[in-house]
Amino acid sequence: MAMMAQMSRLLVPTLREAPADAELASHRLLVRAGFIRRVDQTSGFYSLLPLGQRVKARIEAVIRQELDGIGGQECQLPIVQPASLWERSGRWAVYGQEMWRLADRHEHRYCLGPTHEEVITALVGGEVRSWRQLPQLLYQIQNKYRDEQRPRFGLLRSREFVMKDGYSFHTDEADFDRCYAEVYRAYERIFRRIGLDCRPVQADSGAIGGSLSHEFMALADAGEAEVVLCNACGYAADVERAEAGLRQPPPVRAMQRVATPGARSVEEVSSALGVVPAAVAKSLFFRATYADGRQEVVAALLPGDRTLNEVQLRNACGALELVPASPGEVEVPLGSAGPVGLRGVRLVTDREVASGGGWVVGANEEGVHLVGVCPGRDFDPGAVAALATARTGDACPECGAALRARRGIEVGQVFGLGTKYSAALGATYLDAAGQEIPMVMGCYGIGVTRTLAAVVEQHHDGDGIRWPAAVAPYGCALVTVGVGEQGAQAVEAAQAVGRRLADAGVDTLWDDRDERPGVKFKDADLIGLPVRVTFGRALERGLVEVKARTASEPQLLPLDAAPAAVAAVLQA
Ligand SMILES: [Zn+2]
After folding, report:
1. Tens of pLDDT along 294-306?
2. Top CATH class, 256-385
3. pLDDT tens digit string along 238-247?
4. Which residues of 419-554 form beta strands (DSSP E)?
5. How close is the Cα of 397 to the center of ligand 1, in Å?
6. The model's pTM
7. Which fold would CATH assign to domain 474-571?
8. Which residue spans of the chain are classified as CATH 3.40.50.800?
9. DSSP-derived 3-state class of residue 401
10. Distance 402 CA to ligand 1 centre (A)
11. What is the 401 CA–ligand 1 centroid distance (Å)?
12. What single DSSP character describes residue 308?
């Protein structure tokens, strides 16, 4: 049932000034327009005010409709989870400091759920016995907790946030693949309906295992994630996953020692030797920590003009964590370190360096470098991985055209979990032959509050938010101006239009406050409902102003024509 809300009765505290800690448009505008408020002075926790809650509810409604449409079942799992479950999956020890841990009065340990694989796997494992009960696709929409080291950007990186997390259970990989494709297409529909320009990109599945993984990225300059896109073939990947195209390595020649006094950085070495930075292979040292607690020093060898892709390095050596090594941990001088004769260090070499050629590297001796160093001939490259971060201009790995790097906000992710959790937590089923088999699982997330902020990043201008009709808190703003008899006539006309719009299923927000017209128009633009109808002086001629939030000029229309004009804007 559509309704007409009166602004004078709502809690919509708009502000003229942006909060000091707001760096991004979404953060600034959601606070200024009265959608969210930070809790006290604590960073990373926000209250959703009535307008924010209405947008969130509309986003959730789209998600529910699309997931229910492919057989998803909504459930609700507890936020507080026992440590024992996480110990069985092995994640209690390795999840790290982002997990909120707590104890009850009996000293039993718990966490506030950052995610729910353990809980749902134990639940389904306990209830489902037979292949006849599979597949199952379950989801919930709920608050999640991550103790971010640096919460910021308002709803984009907060410590409490709302997520839709979904999990599927299958007899085999083929059935999982079918479900994955269905969820993937449902996600495309969800983000399209919400009004987000969103790209599914191949993602790193990292330590979770499983083969399939896509992130849904809302393209936005403010995004923290980087993706590379190929306009020629449609290839799209998270920069952590993307492989830079290989270039021709520097020509092969005999290895030689050369003095490079005072030259330590790639730039200094390449200019001292008269070569391009791409002909220098730099060595970067890290202290790696493994799941069993073991540590060692790892060296990454990659072209000097390249930025290290740390995720690929971590995957290549299987480490949980990499921290830059301090000079004391490495026996060689860091400014002249190189792979030739390097001892006590695990070496990982970039594909391009490993592909051959004669490279400039440090000689492991202060002020000395080696030129013409050839992998295989002069040193053992160790593990080979795509260590260079892909960037604009690199060759697309699929078609060879030039890639373009863009920034994005990760609003959703779909990935395969294989049997990692079902095996650890005993989620098995009996097949037709009576054999006990671990279920194959998939996992599907959408950041709901993050999506809300991403919509604002993509839909705003200098005056405020421009909500897409599908998620706007109300469809239409009714603004009455004027005093005395003129004011009374405006109120009467606004109520009549509001009723007609309500009958047509459009929620309206009537600015009935005792404020100057300028204040009302500024607030209407700031709050950003898709269309505004103004009831003022033109009513003497039986006319009202109808203005789409994205239009530069209003239309002057007869009062009777206003509801149809509003509907036309909302359906555009
Ligand atoms: Zn391509």
Report:
1. 999 999 999 999 9
2. alpha beta
3. 898 888 888 8
4. 428-430, 436-438, 440-447, 460-461, 464-465, 476-480, 508-511, 531-535, 543-548
5. 7
6. 0.88
7. Rossmann fold (3.40.50)
8. 474-571
9. coil
10. 7
11. 5
12. B
